[in-house]
Write a structure and sequence with these properties.
Elements (H helix, E strand, L loop, with lengths): L1 H5 L3 H8 L5 E5 L2 H14 L3 H10 L13 H15 L14 H5 L6 H4 L3 H9 L7 E5 H6 L1 H11 L22 E3 L14 E3 H6 L2 H4 L2 H24 L62
Parallel strand pairs: 1-2
Antiparallel strand pairs: 3-4
Helix pairs in contact: 5-13, 8-13
């Protein structure tokens, strides 16, 4: 589905076939999303073939237990920031690009590249009527799944949401106590049940597992793209989508750009926050951002 999200024609094609279709997009903290997707592909042994997809434009059948460390992939991202210089010049596996962009080393691996949400979401917002789109913050699923499912049921015009096991006349019963394909039990493309307890999931922070150096490189990489997403959501009158990147319980990242060549030395604006707005297709009050702090080298 990822390639469809980046497609310039997929949304228009779907609307031609089913003009009343409704779309739900779930966006995740891009720093954590990059690491989580990497771990998914480590689990299903497809890291190398995923990275090679751009080269041969197809997914090879071979699986391998040998994968480059995530830290090595992030070092490549840091070099891209230094060589390419400008966030609007980067491209990834599914993007169009110019020879000049490739010569300037503006390519970023897909684990990271797919977190530049605004450039893909803008394609869909330009085609799909807003009343047919719902945007969700991934963190809401683990923090308050019942409230999210209530909003989803209403958006899809389904009978009212009812948790599984509770007496109701509704034919829809959802098990919100279990989550599937999480970092506690991954199940992408492999023969696993892949079910995790939501309570245990909430206590395990994937961000805390990231090495501070990798986290801070990704934090700086995504700051311009999170700002771009914030502007896009404001333009279309959607609630803000904010994440607490650049800090964990163990460390805080630098409050100045260190790696983006065109931004080096400039202060990092307070773009990343911890508050999550309620899921909605309509406008919501702005959520106050939490400033970024100081961080390790």
């Amino acid at each position: 589905m990822q390639s469809r999200v980046a497609s310039r024609v997929a949304g228009a094609h779907v609307l031609r076939v089913c003009f009343q279709v409704r779309f739900i997009f779930t966006l995740r903290n891009p720093v954590v999303r990059a690491y989580s997707e990497y771990l998914n592909k480590v689990a299903d042994r497809t890291v190398v073939r995923y990275l090679k997809k751009r080269i041969d434009n197809k997914m090879e059948k071979e699986l391998t237990d040998t994968s480059p460390p995530f830290e090595e992939l992030i070092e490549d991202v840091k070099r891209t920031m230094e060589l390419c210089g400008a966030p609007n010049r980067t491209f990834s596996m599914m993007d169009e690009y110019t020879p000049e962009m490739e010569k300037a080393s503006c390519y970023v691996n897909p684990f990271v590249g797919e977190g530049r949400y605004a450039r893909y979401l803008r394609l869909w917002l330009g085609i799909v009527p807003k009343r047919q789109m719902m945007l969700l913050n991934f963190d809401e699923w683990t923090h308050d799944a019942a409230r999210v499912m209530e909003a989803v049921s209403e958006f899809l015009q389904l009978p009212p949401f009812q948790a599984k096991g509770v007496s109701t006349t509704s034919p829809f019963g959802y098990n919100i106590a279990a989550a599937h394909n999480t970092h506690l039990s991954r199940s992408v493309h492999i023969d696993r049940k892949g079910q995790s307890d939501v309570g245990a999931l909430a206590k395990e922070s994937l961000a805390e597992q990231l090495p501070p150096s990798s986290h801070c490189v990704l934090h700086e990489f995504f700051v311009p793209y999170i700002a771009e997403l914030a502007a896009l959501l404001h333009e279309y009158d959607f609630p803000p989508m904010l994440w607490p990147t650049g800090r964990t319980d163990r460390f805080k990242c630098k409050d100045k750009f260190m790696f983006w060549r065109g931004l080096k030395g400039k202060p990092i604006e307070p773009l990343a926050g911890a508050a999550m707005p309620p899921p909605s297709t309509g406008p919501q009050p702005a959520t106050k951002a939490v400033p970024a702090g100081d961080a390790p080298e």
